[in-house]
Amino acid sequence: RMSSRKVHAVIFDLDGTLADTFPLIVAAWNAAITPHTGKTYSDADVISRFGIPDPQMIRRELADAAGEQAVAVYHDNYLRRHAEFVKPFDGVTELLTELRRRKVPLGVMTGKGRRSAEITFDALGWRDFFGAIVTGEDVTAQKPDPAGPLAVARALNVAPHDCAFVGDSPADIGAGKAAQMVTVAAGWHPVYLDEIRRMEPDVWAETPLDILRLV
Q1: Is the pTM of this model over 0.90?
Q2: How would you write 122-185 as a 3-class SS string?
Q3: Which end of the chain is more exposed for a tag (fewer CB within 10 A), N or C?
């Protein structure tokens, strides 16, 4: 299903939308948290804690010095093990390359922290694709609040109504709707599919390259 609205800029979520980072986040979380709690956390355990930047997720779990130490261990693991765990979803790099060739302004609004976001952009060689990158640490209200996507639209100098917001989670679709953007479900990531279907995004993209039809 495609939207009748033409878009002039595309804003992406990062985790679960552009790259399959969930396995790395879970591995780095366990490396950081398990020594303090003695507990091994499942994918579902960690995913259920999403919604705030990763350093805040850790500090919410562990107080004071233990929390700060765990944040450092988390970032160390996130950097060191990135190549082992993370790759772009099939078609994403081709999509970004073609959108850039068409001179479509591109941005990212991710709920994760700035440090881990930058590690991923550097590791995947994507930093130059995006005119604006806003992280969960750059906004006071997290998705589904529209503050993040709206900040990206402002930085790209494109009206929110002329932007598409592409994401894989209920928070992404909620934020895009609240920002009055064309909401695009990243249908290639299976974790939240049933939940986002119920939210009726404007566009259901089965593959990243489907997004080219919007611009």
Answers
A1: yes
A2: HHHCCHHHCCEEECHHHCCCCCCCCHHHHHHHHHHCCCHHHEEEEECCHHHHHHHHHCCCEEEE
A3: N
